[in-house]
């Protein structure tokens, strides 16, 4: 605010006269009006700056925000000064034409305030769709209202803003039609005997294929799981690191979302031998014509959050329930049609860097996989163009998703095989930051049914036989627990009658403390019906006649609940009536359960990644510094597609390397390419 005011008063400032304040107010108004077309110019996705300069819209979005803030500050300066010369009564009651213009100015200023307030980060994170719709409605309304406020000789910037908006939307609409709508000729059986022109049909959009998980034995019921789809026969080429905007009308009529493909478009492979005859020349011509119109399948990794992504996950779940989804031609398998807009972005030439560091979090791994796919295709088509010698692949996730991990590992294994054969050194690291995902030694060391197994003699093993000290002590504990339960039920019955004498003991549904506060629902059937019970807790032992509702320290064995450290059963079933019964905890992550099920389903095999870490966060600065110091002469690129925290760490480490290059401590510069998301 102080910078803007100082510029208004210092650079070609008006003379100090009696109308100095009014001159400053009108100057602020002119600055506001002239900046309006600029803020709309910087918001275009296919505007002149995007097409001519090759600058993607996401790289200049920060400038769009700062110009908007500058407009808000200059407009506030204009309103504050002009308000001091006009009373509120005149604004509300006067019928003067000049006051009507002032009313339009106040309305446009309130629209500007609403646009600024509704654009703050928490609202964008809460619902980007609501923010986007509100932002466009508010800004267009601001243009129409401010057009009534400014004089006619000052309307040119407003019409320029309308022109930039119209140009952007028309170019996007034309691009969508060009990519997604085509006319394809029909090929009848006897087409080669017909001389008349054949028929054609109009094709809109592209079919969507659902991909099966690579590991069907892994658990699937995880929070915010990832769905992998394939958009077939897309007739555009995209480079690794670019993103597209996807529209699925069957799942969201008014939702368009950006996604980064996990692969790149197919690279044209030259024929192995030159043509030797006229027939070979004709074949080469036909091959070149088909290669110019080649299409590629686009693989997308979409994490389920809400709206379109959640409905896509539900659609994929229903598709997996089909008897044989890949072999059965059903309506569900062919009902989804996708419309693609793009590609957007201007990534660097990846093969020109000797050393690559790829850092990704969550579904940002598709960004890194597209680079790996491109380099793998380059190894097959023209390895002479590839200068890359080392690749460091780092993938960071918050919670475990076995299906997603298996899919990424399979793609990474396929991409890495060809590059390693071409002499490229690849190092892959995988991090799960959730503390519940840490592998505990107790998962494999303790046998929860050891006390039920028969005693087998093991000759020559040297192990001591498993014995129980004081075996009759457990029966005494059972009797003591039964006595405690009887006392507790009598105490609860007495408390219930003290509160309401008309409530029957067997109809009581709540337990109350001595202070009269409600403690929680009474489940019945003793402690075995509580939230910490397991399958071994309920029921009675028909042979012995003793209840199996025992939780003494002697009988308590290792179970899944104790492994996961989610809830630990008490050593005694007796609970103080003065303490409230603990409510069931909210649904937390299932990393520990996934880790435990993975150990039960199969033996832990060798991971597809060179390094796998659970329950820890990587030191991005140390990793980048180690790569920078390993070879001072390699041309290094750090590519990041991660959240704001990881992106800031990577940019800070690269900035330090750039300072070292500026001071002459490093022979080559270090570049960074960030594809951030929140």
Automatic annotation (TrEMBL):
Residues 1-17 form the signal peptide. It comes from Didymella rabiei (Chickpea ascochyta blight fungus). It is a multi-pass membrane protein. This is Oxidoreductase. Residues 530-549 have a biased composition (Polar residues). The lineage of its organism: Eukaryota, Fungi, Dikarya, Ascomycota, Pezizomycotina. One of its GO terms (cellular component) is plasma membrane. Belongs to the ferric reductase (FRE) family. Residues 287-296 have a biased composition (Low complexity). GO terms for biological process: copper ion import; intracellular iron ion homeostasis; iron ion transport.
